[in-house]
Amino acid sequence: MTSLHLIESAVARAYSGYHRPIHRKAAAILHSVVGNHGFTDGNKRTAWLLVEILIERSGFHLSIADDAPIDDLVVSVADNQITFEELCAWFKARISKSDTAT
User: Fold this and answer.
1) Residue 102 falls inside a structural domain
2) pLDDT tens digit sequence for 47-78
3) Number of domains in the chain
4) Is residue 91 part of a domain?
5) C-alpha angle 19/26/11, rounded to 5°?
6) Which of 27, 38, 67, 87 is deepest in the core (most CB within 10 A)?
């Protein structure tokens, strides 16, 4: 069963004030949405979609290869094989300010 409370909590984490840089916001959303299990199905897919929307709408670009094993990254978050700080570092190395003006 879908839990709106868990979904709202997961998304709110990124905006709590503790995660001001974009790489920390992205990591917080991915980590929380995957971990909170607010949806009956599709938590990992939804988490990644939210990350992409956050980055794009914030005026940034995520530099990853088209064939990058993103599924492996998201599953490693779900399996607690990557720490939050490691996830922050992963995003920090790949997010840059977008060149296009909106």
Assistant:
1) no
2) 999 999 999 999 999 999 888 899 999 999 99
3) 1
4) yes
5) 75
6) 27
